[in-house]
Amino acid sequence: METKNIYAYNPKETEQASVFSKLMRNVYRWMTFALAITGLTAACVAGNATLMQFILGNQAVFLGLIIAELVVAFTLIGRVSKLSFTNASLLFILYSILTGATLSTIFLVYEIGSIASTFFVTAGTFGAMSLVGYFTHKDLSKMGTYLIMALIGLIIATIANWFIASTTLDWGITYALVLVFVGLTAYDTQKIKVMLREHGMGLDESTQKLALMGSFTLYLDFLNLFLQLLKILGKRK
Predict the structure, then answer these.
(1) Are 187 and 133 a contacting pair, CB within 8 Å?
(2) Is 173 within 8 Å of 161 (Cβ atoms)?
(3) Measured between alpha carbons, how far is 104 from 172 in angstroms, rounded to an integer?
(4) What CDD domains does this protein's entry cite (predicted)?
(5) In the chain, domain spans
(6) What's the maximum distance between 2 C-alpha atoms anywhere in the chain?
(7) What backbone phi and psi angles, to 5 degrees, belong to 236?
(8) Percent of the chain, pLDDT > 70?
(9) pLDDT at 129
């Protein structure tokens, strides 16, 4: 009697696994690339007294940079399906540069050694939680819903605290945001993994844009986690 080989080679499944693997690598490559652009831009701007004076000496310029960041981010998120992969990539790069310009101010507030050490702490924390999100078999979608609700609540609390000016509330929000972004890192990683497995049937422009948006999400998680940790761990000048 002939026995069926359950381990028979399946070219289609092998090709899909290869595509998924490449797309996931692209997610982290784009995220790393964008973080490098942000970091280099921040360092270059901070090292140029004229640029720093131009940004910080004129409130309209600094506000304009923040507004430009928001416009680029919402354009990328809202219109990515209509954009070409090249244009979406350029918007991501532009966002990274604008973010670097606004973040250059941290070099005036914190010692550079403390910025570097906080970056490595963030990288370690982010890496560990991203691995959790990638390898866990537990569905994190419910946790993600609660985390997003908590993030919205904390943003509202932050705005309210601009008027209240409570130091205790400010630190409470900071620690809570660290926990939220730690959790979101795991949740977003799992979401990206599932999304690419379901839709990543080939390396076409559509799936490349999915990977790009995944990297944008993780980039934001990393950056926000870094800023909250810097507030806690950073040594001020």
Answers:
(1) yes
(2) yes
(3) 25
(4) BI-1-like_bacterial
(5) 14-233
(6) 85
(7) -75, 155
(8) 92
(9) 96
